[in-house]
Amino acid sequence: MIYLLLSPWVLWGIYCAVMRLKQVREANALTTSIKVMGYPWLFFGLFVDFVVNTIFGSLVFLDLPREWTLSSRLWRLSNLEPSWRQKWALWIRINLLDPIDPSGIHKG
């Protein structure tokens, strides 16, 4: 149970690390050492994202997942017509994901 409660924080921390890797890659500054240390976090993050989307996301949004990742689900829900799901998804995107994404808008 404690893992379920902590999973969104773990996923967000991994998301921050992966977005930094994205910035380094876009700056053509990826070294072999960074790849060796960073890419496992990317793959671990995809696994955590899938689990959080499937369990936590389904509980929070009372909606079965149609996407593989929580980011994709948030993008879909935030672009729906106004509803409580859309408000939650927008709040999460605007306050937690968009400021960290190098592009400024996290599309999932």
Give your account of this protein's structure.
With 108 residues, the chain is mainly α. It has one domain. Helix content is 72%, strand content 0%. The protein contains four helices and no strands. Helix 1 crosses helix 2 and helix 3 packs across helix 4. It is globular, with a radius of gyration of 14 Å.
User: What structural class do you assign from the helix and strand content?
Assistant: mainly alpha
Dominant shape: globular
Number of strands: 0
Task: Give the helices and strands as they follow along the chain.
Answer: HHHH
Topology (SSEs and partners):
Blueprint: H1 2-26, H2 32-61, H3 70-78, H4 84-97
Q: Which keywords apply here?
A:
108 residues, mainly alpha, single chain
Gist of the model:
This protein is mainly alpha-helical and 108 residues long. The protein has four helices and no strands.
